[in-house]
Design a protein that fits this description.
The complex is a heterodimer.
Chain A lengths: L2 H16 L20 H15 L5 H6 L3 H14 L1
Helix pairs in contact in A: 1-2
Chain B lengths: L5 H16 L5 H14 L5 H22 L5 H37 L17 H17 L8 H9 L12 H9 L6 H33 L7 H33 L16 H6 L3 H17 L1 H14 L1 H24 L3 H27 L1
Helix pairs in contact in B: 1-2, 2-6, 3-4, 3-5, 3-6, 4-5, 8-9, 11-13, 12-13, 13-14
Chain lengths: 82, 373
Amino acid sequence: MKREEVFERLNNVFRDIFDDETIVVKEETTSKDIEDWDSLEHINLVVAIEQEFGIKFNMNEVTSMKNVGEMVDIILTRVEEK
Amino acid sequence: MNLTSLFFLCYVFITLCIYFITPKKFQWVILLISSVIFLFYDNLHVSTILQALVVLLPSYLLGKKIEGNSNTKQGKKLLILGIVLILAQLIYLKYTNLFIATANHINNLLHIHHQFAFVQRNSLVGISYYSLIMIGYLVDIYRGTCKAEKNIFKCALFMSYFPILTSGPFIRYDSVGKQLYEGHKLHYDTLCRGLIRILWGVFKILVISQRLGMFVDAIYGNLELYTFVFIIAAAMAFVMQLYTNFSGSIDVIMGISEIIGIKLPENFSLPFFSRTVTELWRNWHITLGAWLRDYIFYPLLKSDIMQKLAKKCKEKFGKKAAKKIPMYLSMLVMWFIIGAWHGGAYTFIIGSGLLQFFYMFLEDILRASFKKD
């Protein structure tokens, strides 16, 4: 899976979770850039991403992701491991 | 040992003197000896030694085994074993009488005349703190956040670091563990800052909290003599008494650690300046909140059961309910645990736990309806 494809699918997940069709995530996007992205929504987001890509994040990854770029790195690693 | 007693302060002074004249390599041994003395001071008994070992041995032995099995099924089994062993002891020591009282109450309701006798439990100081701290340690090893400690005595020091045993804060191995074992030099700056913080803490406890306590006790002890206004004033004073006592204790603990050269996480952040109940609890006993969030709330919210529930809620009630219902349920479980952790009585479970959940639940619902308008 290519990085661009991951971003495309991630955009759909973000738009669905935060109810905002204008969201476009980038490598450096963080929770500060999206108004409703608090710690609770983060868990909902993580679960939605897991379902979208058929992968599982471990709790350390869930709490330590610094931006969307890191999120994509983990997704790509997990998808390759499958 | 009382944190504001002259005896405790002398104990700390002697510990610090010996600590700073000891070669850096062995300073942690001084902290360990001091912590062990503190732990068993006036409660040295075979049963209390066993209590400490029931937490230390699984943490140490299973921690090493889990390290090679991070995020695997085998690691999970070992982790669960460790958690069960530590929790079983904590529940046995803290909640046996609560179970007995509940059973007796049920017997009364069913008109069964048999009453179970209450039991005396001799718990070691700080057991509620170090049991959770060591569960966190095992979970962190399982998650790969930290490595297992290979030296059992160092592991024992992490478990029993004496300043935090009475009031916290909750520490984590990856941030505090290393600081305990590395040597420290006495610095004039940290000595001054530490002493000022200790003094401030002692002031809060002795001057503010204990004075307020006299006022509160006088009214709470004779409620029938006072009018509504005095009772409300006493209730407000009690909150300040509690806060100044608890945060004062934390100041003493932070001050001692600062002198040693150990940076502990802050436990309070101006809680009474919060705008909401949620914010208040985020700023009160911060490290307990963070512990519960990372080791109970998040894993619960992310668990398969909650996700199945969310799916069903989405089908039946829509997307918003699918987010809110699992969140409320996870919060309910977390606040029940917070209440129970504070003490083995329903007053704690309800007053410090479920009632607070109810306030936050109400706040969330009301906030949503205000937003609509």
